[in-house]
Amino acid sequence: MDALILTIIATSIPLLLAATGELISEKSGVLNLGVEGMMLSGAVGALGAVLWLENPYFGILAGALSGIFMATIFSIFTINFMTNQVATGLGLTIFATGLTGLAGAPLVGKTITSLPKIEIIFLSDIPLIGPILFKQDLIAYLSIVIIVLATYFLKYTKSGMILRAVGDDHYSAHSIGYSVKKIRWFATSFGGMCAGIGGAYIPLVLTPHWSEGMTAGRGWIALALVVFASWIPWRIIVGALIFGGITIAQLVGQARGWPIPSQILSMMPYIATIIALTMISGRISKNKNIVPASLGKPFIDMH
Amino acid sequence: MFTFVPRDKVSKNWVILGPLVSIFLTIFFGLLIFTFLGYDPLETLYQVFMSPFSRIDRVSDIFVKACPLIIIGCGLMLCFRANIWNIGAEGQFIMGALLAGSFALMFPDVETKILLLFMFLVGFIGGAIWAFIPAILKTRLNVNEILVSLMLVYVAMLFIDFIVRGPLRDPMSFGFPLTKPYPEGALINKIPFPGIGYLGQLHYGILLIVLLIPLSWIFIHKTLGGFKITVLGSAPKAAKFAGFKENSITMTVLLLSGGLAGIAGVVEVSANMGQLQPEVSFGYGFTAIIVAFLGRLNPIGILFAGITIATVKLGADNAQMTMGIPKVVTGLFEGILLFFLLTGETLQKYQIKWKRFK
C-alpha cells in the first residue's frame, strides 16, 4: 500500500511543479502553452547534466536552467514583440520537441543514477505516514516548499498583490507606475523554472533514460490543472494527486490483467482532464473573477 | 530600448515580406543551432532544403506530402481566423481515417471508386465528430477548446492503436498490427504520365487541393459566412453588435476544420497505405498549424506554405538517412519559423521606434 501511495506521489510531482509555475505566470496575465516544451527541455537538460557531471543534483539545476531558457524565448516574443501568446506557446512546444529530439539523440540508451531519497531522521520512522512524507527526494520536498511559498506570495505579500494587479488589469497597473513587462518576465521565468524542474523529475526519478517526447502530454495536463485548481495553488496538490492516482490506476490495471484493453486504460488521464475541465467550467462561468482578467492579452506599451 | 508605435495602415510590404524574411531568419538560426550541436551546417542546408528538389520524383513527393497539410491547413485557417484554437487536428485526422477505413473494410469486393466518395463523406463525419466534442463543450459550457482538442489527440492515437491491434486486425497479417487491405474501390491511384509512367508517389488526391483552394478562397472572401468568421476573430465586439451568433460560428469552424482534417486522413491512408495501421499520421495535424500561419491564414498562402513545409519534412527525412539527424528536428525549424512569423505580424501593425534609456 505504501509503495502504491509513493508511486502516486512520484507521478504527481512533475504535474504539481509545472502547474504551480504556470499558475504564477497566468496570475501575471501570461498564458504560456509551452509548458510541455519547457518540461521536455528540463528533462533533456537534466539527463545531459547528470551524464556529464555524474551527480543527480546537477540535474535539478540543469532542468531549472533549461526551463528558464525556454521561458526566456517565450518572453522575448510575447512580452517584447507582443506576439499572440497561444500561437507562441504552441510554437515553443513544437520548437522544444525538435530541439530536445536533436539534443537527446546522443543520450539514447544511456541510463542515469536516480535522485537519492532523503530521510528526515525520527520523522521517517513514524508508521504509515513517515515513509510517505519524510523519505522523499529533494524535488518532492522542494515542490511542497514552492507551493507554500506561492500561496504566501500571492496572498500575503505586496509583490504578490502587484503581480495579481498586473494580471487583472495591465493598463491600470501600468498607469500607476508598475512595470508590467518586467513583472511578466519574472513570472514567466519562474514558470519556466518550475516546469523545467518538473520535467527534470521524469528522468531523475521516474524513468532514468531519454526517449523522444518522454513528457507524454504532462505539460498539457499541468495547464488543465491550473484551470481545475481555479488559480488557487494548494488545490493543485489535490488535482495532481488525482491525476497521479488515475495514471497509476491504469498501470496497475494493465499489470493485474483487468479485462479492459490497455489502450483504453491509457486514455484515462486524458479523458479525466476533459471531465475535470468540464466540471470546473460551471464555477468559472458563475464567477468570472476566478480567471485573471488580462490572461492571454498582449500588453501594448505606447510610451 | 525600443518601443512600438502603431502604423496608420497595415503595412502592405510586411504582408508579403514577413513570411519571406521569416524563412531566411529561420534558416539562419536553425543552422546556427546545428553548428552549435556539431553538425556540418552546409551539409544540413543542402539535405534539408535542397535535396528534395534534386530529382523529379522527389519533387512530386513534395506535393504528396503537402497534400494533407494543405487540406488540414485550409480548415484550421477558418478556426484561427475566428480566434478559435483547434489544435487537435491530429486527432481529427486519425478519427477520419479510422472511420472511413472501417467503412471501406465493410465492402471487401467493391471495385468502383464511388466507394471512395462515400469514404470522404464518412471521413469528414469522423473528423467532425471528434471536433464536435470541444465545440459543444466550448459553446455550451465555455470549456477551453485548446486543452480539450489536444487531449482528444492522445485519445484518438490510443483508440486507433486499439482498433487496429484488436477488432480490425487482419488474421492473415502474420502478427503485424494491420487491417485487411482496402478494396480496390477505396484506393486513390497514382497518376500515370504518358511516356514517363508514375512520378514518385504522385496520386489523384492532389486534385482535391485544386478544388479546395479556390473554394475556400471564395468562402473567405466572397460569402457572408466567411466574412462573419473574420469579423468574429478580428473584432469580437463588432460581431456582437452586428448580431452574429458567436456560438454557431464557433461550431461551424470547428466542425469544418475537423471534417477537413478527417478528409486529409482518408486521402493519406487511401493513397499511401492501402490499409489501416496503428500510426496513420506523422504529426500532420500539428504541422498544419504552422502551415496555416505561414500561409497568413489565406488559401493561396497556405498552398505555398504547404509546399514549403513539405519540402523541409522530406529534407529532414533525407537528413536522417544520410546524416543521422533525428527526424523531429523539423520541429526546430517549424517553431523558429512560427516565432518570426508572429513577430512579422506585430511589425505589420506597429513601427519600431528607438529611444534612449531614461
Key structural traits:
heterodimer, A: about 300 residues, mainly alpha, ABC transporter involved in vitamin B12 uptake, BtuC, 13 helices, 2 strands, B: about 350 residues, two-stranded antiparallel sheet, about 70% helix, globular
Describe the structure.
The complex is a heterodimer of chains A (303) and B (358). Chain A is mainly alpha-helical. Chain A has a single domain (2-290), classed as ABC transporter involved in vitamin B12 uptake, BtuC, CATH 1.10.3470. Helices cover 72% and strands 2% of the residues of chain A. The N and C termini of chain A lie far apart (61 Å). The mean pLDDT of chain A is 89. Chain B has a domain at 67-292. Chain B has 13 helices and four strands. Chain B has helices at residues 12-36, 41-50, 56-81, 89-105, 114-141, 145-165, 206-222, 224-234, 236-241, 246-272, 284-294, 299-323, 329-349; strands spanning 2-6, 190-193, 197-203, 350-354. In chain B, a hairpin with a 3-residue loop joins strand 2 and strand 3.
Describe the structure concisely:
The complex is a heterodimer of chains A (303) and B (358). Helix content of chain A is 72%, strand content 2%.
